[in-house]
Amino acid sequence: MGEEWLETAPFQFFTDHVDPAIAEATREGRRREFADFTSFSGEEVPDPQELETFLRSKLRPREPDPLYRALLALRRELPRELEAEADEDAKVLRLRRGGATLVADFGNRHVEFSTG
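RESULT FIELD:
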């Protein structure tokens, strides 16, 4: 939701339903969905039909994050085939695509990435 642009604006769910009944059902559904979130206790859930909800969610154009640029370029260069290997006991996931390898060690919270 904008991480590649270092976006700080929160993404808020928004709609533009024309039918008032559907619009109200969507509002009520959002309220129910967030009812158990302590961060919203005492606060109103943003109204998905309000123009302001949409405007708060808009990206503000800026230079993209260099890491995302590099990762997107790498994705275009690598073959589409992906090899995946998981060791559930060790909590390790290994992904290979062409000459690139990503190893995610969830047990030790460590990630390694190599190319070549």
